[in-house]
Amino acid sequence: MQQKSYYPKPGDVEGQWYLVDATGQNLGRLASQIATILLGKHRPEYTPGVDLGDAVIVLNCGQITVTGTKMTDKTYYRYSGFQSGLKETSLRRMLETHPDRVIQEAVWGMLPHNKLGRQLIKKLKIYAGSEHPHTAQKPQPLAVK
């Protein structure tokens, strides 16, 4: 008799919430660990193409660190779709105005760019301060390496 392999459904797995403090954390290392949790690769029942990931809350996103001269050299681009509508912003300016977008764009670059990735990025909640409205979900603190 042949044994059937287990294929998890998104409703079968109970999702957890994790809390990350970004104070003093390196941007790329933090983003890769957040992407791993959102994808669900830390779970033993991980299956590509199935949303088994957990939700992540990031606090103090404006206090991340970067190495080298990325603070002035790294630029973010956005395009309005109109002629000469390309805008560019440095990392330093982005951290002053929209610190949450820095982490969101770094994590989005590490997720699949399809329906699954768009579904997973919605599980990422980023806040500039140390307060968040998700206390009812009882998030567990995540030890970022």
Write up what this structure looks like.
The protein has 145 residues and is α/β, with parallel strands linked by helices. The chain has five helices and six strands, in the order βαβαββαααββ. It has helices at residues 27-39, 70-73, 91-97, 99-108, 115-121; strands at residues 17-21, 55-59, 75-79, 86-90, 124-126, 140-141. The protein has a four-stranded parallel beta sheet, covered by helices on one side. α1 packs across α4 (99-108) and α3 crosses α4. It is globular.
Secondary structure: elements and pairs:
Blueprint: E1 17-21, H1 27-39, E2 55-59, H2 70-73, E3 75-79, E4 86-90, H3 91-97, H4 99-108, H5 115-121, E5 124-126, E6 140-141
Parallel strand pairs: 1-2, 1-6, 2-5
Antiparallel strand pairs: 3-4
Helix pairs in contact: 1-4, 3-4
Give a short summary of the structure.
The chain has 145 residues and is α/β, with parallel strands linked by helices.
Helix content: 25-40%
Tell me what portion of residues adopts beta-strand conformation.
15-25%
Q: Kindly report the spatial arrangement of strands forming the biggest sheet.
A: 5-2-1-6
Overall average residue pLDDT: 93
Largest beta sheet, briefly?
Answer: 4 strands, parallel
CATH topology value of the domain at 17-65 and 98-141: Ribosomal Protein L13p, Chain: A
